[in-house]
Amino acid sequence: MTARLDVVRSDPTRRWSAYAVAAFVGLTLATVHPLGFLVGGALVSLPTRNWRRGLLAGLAFGVLGWLAFAALLAASGSLGRYLDTGRLLALSVAIPVLASLVGGLARALD
User: Fold this and answer.
1) How many angstroms separate the CA atoms of 99 and 59, rounded?
2) CA-to-CA distance for 47 and 80, rounded, in angstroms?
């Protein structure tokens, strides 16, 4: 498995393709269950060159997931009410970001 990941990590085109596929799979899983953010963070961290970049990739995936959720709320006209919820807003930002950040630690295991 590591040899295959090394091939992906060494080729920029394959690495970016792997990021795109991992983000798509992670966001798809996150629409079904919040643990999808953990899995998505792990998936986007695997093509990175080191564990620090893996953490950053996991964090970026969490932010992307929350921004996608906010965009859906904006499209439905509910974003203003959502931003007024206070603690619920903080929790709904923290769950995807922190779960994806923890998932990003998967790169440190390789």
Assistant:
1) 9
2) 37
**Interacting residues of 41 by C-beta distance below 8 A, sequence separation 6+:** 26, 57, 58, 59, 61, 62, 99, 100, 101, 102, 103, 104, 106
**Which 3 state secondary structure label does DSSP give 11?**
coil
Residue 73 parent element (H or E): helix 51-76
Q: In this structure, what token pair is assigned to residue 45?
A: 């961290």
CA distance 87 to 27: 24
The letter for the amino acid at 84 is D
Pick from 105, 4, 109: nearest CA to 57: 105
The answer to whether the CB of 73 falls within 8 A of the CB of 80 is no
Determine the Cα–Cα distance for residues 110 and 103; give it in Å rounded to an integer.
13
pLDDT digit string (tens) for 2-61? 788 888 898 899 999 999 999 999 999 999 999 999 999 999 999 999 999 999 999 999
